[in-house]
Amino acid sequence: MMNISVIVPVLNEEQTLAVTLAALTRLAPHEIIVVDGGSTDKTAAICQQFGVTFLPSHPSRARQMNRGAQEASGDVLLFLHADTRLPESAFRDVATALSDSRYLGGRFDVELEGGHWMLKIIGAMINCRSRLSKIATGDQAIFIRREIFEQMGGYPDIPLMEDIAFCRTLKRMGDIACLKSRVVSSARRWQAEGLWRTILKMWALKLLFFAGVSPHRLKQYYADTR
């Protein structure tokens, strides 16, 4: 059996964290490490309630995930957003995928939680794009062999698109497993900013990033949604 460490970067996530940790605890991973970027709400108290490892960090998702990875003891690192829930079969699916030595890491398909019919189409588009490109976003619960993560030097220290940059490096090193099992992720950003506006904004940011625009510059157009 593989020991899977789950690392959850958070910042003021009291609205979603309890549900995520409750679902995650039932799956009994090797360890759960929550890395906090300076929350001022009840995030720390929720972590204490569930008895997970709680680490302080600078408020940067890349730095938070790297901090969690430094403290993790598992053979596999799985990075989970605070508003995303893993499927019941998650750890079996990861272990099965990584039993094939070709795969260095991988990601799940995603389902966006919400009643709007467009959310199913958006989720399907994300999954299709990711399966073709082998590039995943953080809400797809990226996982990786620990030794490969260390060889890569972790996530790049950039304020945005760290997951995209990470996967681009990973796929140059070897194969990425695209699991068909689905995580369920909050659609709060899509609902807050509007579906079409968010689609256009996310595609524009990705295209600009691929064109070489600095993530530090792009960050000013990407507001955190809680």
Summarize the structure.
The chain is of the alpha/beta class. It contains ten helices and eight strands. The protein has helices spanning 17-27, 43-50, 61-71, 90-98, 117-133, 146-152, 162-173, 188-193, 195-210, 215-218; strands at residues 4-10, 31-36, 53-56, 76-79, 84-85, 103-113, 143-145, 175-186.
List keywords for this structure.
45% helix; alpha/beta; 10 helices; eight-stranded mixed sheet; 226 residues
Structural category: alpha/beta
- The ordered string of helix (H) and strand (E) elements is EHEHEHEEHEHEHHEHHH
Q: Which residues sit in consecutive blocks of at least 5 with pLDDT less than 50? A: none
- Measured between the Cα atoms of the first and last residue, the distance is 36 Å
Strand content: 15-25%
- According to DSSP, the number of beta strands is 8
Query: How much is the average pLDDT?
Result: 93
Helix content: 40-55%
> Which sequence of strands runs across the widest sheet?
3-2-1-4-7-6-8-5
- Approximate shape: globular
Major sheet, described briefly? 8 strands, mixed
In DSSP terms, counting alpha (H) and pi (I) runs of 4 or more, how many helices?
10
Taking Cα atoms only, what radius of gyration do you get, to the nearest Å?
16 Å
Describe this structure in words.
The protein starts with a strand and ends in an 8-residue tail after the last helix. The protein has helices at 17-27, 43-50, 61-71, 90-98, 117-133, 146-152, 162-173, 188-193, 195-210, 215-218, and strands at 4-10, 31-36, 53-56, 76-79, 84-85, 103-113, 143-145, 175-186. The mean pLDDT is 93. By secondary structure, the protein is of the alpha/beta class. Strands 3-2-1-4-7-6-8-5 form an 8-stranded mixed sheet, sandwiched between helices. The relative contact order is 0.16.
